Every structure is written in C-alpha cells, then in structure tokens.
Amino acid sequence: MNWLLKFLPEEKRKLIVLAQRIIGCLDTAEERKAAVDYVMKMLEDGRVEVPKWAKFGSKLGILRAPRRNPNG
Q: Does residue 66 belong to any structural domain of this protein?
C-alpha cells in the first residue's frame, strides 16, 4: 500500500501514515476496531473539536489525567 501513497497529496499521505502508526500501536483487533469506529464517528460532521481529540487520546491511552501526589 505504501507505494500508492506517493500518488496522493502530501497532506493526505501524512494523515494515512499517522493513522497507520496509531492503529499499529494497538494490541488487539477489538482495540483497533473501537479506535477506527470512534474516529469515523468523530469525523462525521467534518469538524473535530479539542474535546473529541482529547477523548480519542484518552481511549488510546495517550492522554491521562496527571497523577496526584498522595502526600499532598
């Protein structure tokens, strides 16, 4: 598939490579399917707002709440 990428505009190539890297980091088919399903839903209206990206990042385990120090 990578040989096909050279025929796409650079912006589209970068998006596809990003998607490949994200999907490649997921362990199971269920995780990959859940991530793809969420992204497709997220992109339905053609707009992606920061809260949607944050939710996606948290689903991937990229964004996590900072740990609180139990000692204050």
A: no
65 domain residue, yes or no:
no
The number of beta carbons lying within 10 Å of the beta carbon of residue 72 is 4
The whole model's pTM is what?
Answer: 0.58
d(CA 32, CA 10): 25
Find the domain containing 29 and state its range: 2-60
Per the structure, the count of domains in the chain is: 1
- The maximal CA–CA distance of the chain, rounded, in angstroms, is 56
Dihedral angle sign, alpha carbons of residues 63, 65, 67, 72: positive
* Calpha distance 34→42 (Å, rounded): 12
Q: In this model, does residue 21 exceed pLDDT 70?
A: yes
